[in-house]
Amino acid sequence: MNIVILSGSVAGSKTRTAMEYVKASFNNNHPEHDTELLNLADLDIQFSDGRNFLDYSGDTGYLTKTLMEADAIVIGTPIFQASIPGALKNVFDLLPQDGFRDKTVSMLATAGSSKHFLIPENQLKPIIGYMKAQMLQSYVFIEERYFANGEITDDDVIFRIDRLAEDTLVLAETYRKIREEKEASYGF
User: Fold this and answer.
1) d(C-alpha 117, C-alpha 105), whole Å
2) How far apart are CA 121 and CA 139, in angstroms?
3) Digit-coded pLDDT (tens) for 1-24
4) How many domains does the chain have?
5) InterPro entries, alphabetically (predicted)?
């Protein structure tokens, strides 16, 4: 299975740190799957201008093609000004409206305050659902107080990240089997 872990911000370090933990969880517990961490801060991404995702080149083309080829995607986002970053929204705009069809998508959010715990629910889930993803309903929310010196300091947060990785794989495998059975039933 091809798993893409997307750190959806060009600023800050906490989301990237958390997404590195997600990647480590997949690599340590499920090494048979291919995982790739894409950090928007490391890429030179163009603004969406309505072109087909295949028409972009450079980092933008690499990002869109990698996401479109993924079986499962874990999206990480910080919460800035009670919203997702514009850089992450731009990624969604670069993809086709049904760009997440037949993909399992799960989410992780970092924020400075517990007051923002519903941002993924109210802003990310509608976008991901509109793009036709099979969405893991639970997500990981990590407050700033659980980070120190580039590390996550709370064992419960690490446990929730491991559970997110496991649940993402279970959902992706379940939907893959359902699609295979459906396609096999056509008999041609």
Assistant:
1) 18
2) 9
3) 999 999 999 999 999 999 999 999
4) 1
5) Flavoprotein-like_sf, FMN_Rdtase-like_dom, NAD(P)H-dep_FMN_reductase
What are the residues whose beta carbons fall under 8 Å from the beta carbon of 9, sequence distance 6 or more?
A: 15, 16, 40, 41, 77, 78, 80, 85, 87, 88
CA dihedral for 35, 15, 52, 168, sign (positive or negative):
positive
Tell me how crowded residue 6 is: count the other CB atoms within 10 A of its CB.
Answer: 27
Q: How far apart are CA 90 and CA 8, in angstroms?
A: 10
Q: Show the DSSP H helices in the chain as ranges.
A: 14-29, 58-69, 86-94, 119, 125-130, 155-184
| Tokens encoding 98 | 């049904």
Residue 161: domain span: 2-184
Residue 143 near residue 15 (C-beta atoms within 8 A): no
pTM of the model: 0.96
pLDDT one-digit tens code per residue, 135-176: 999 999 999 999 999 999 999 999 999 999 999 999 999 999
Q: What angle do CA 101, 29, 66 make, to 5 degrees?
A: 35
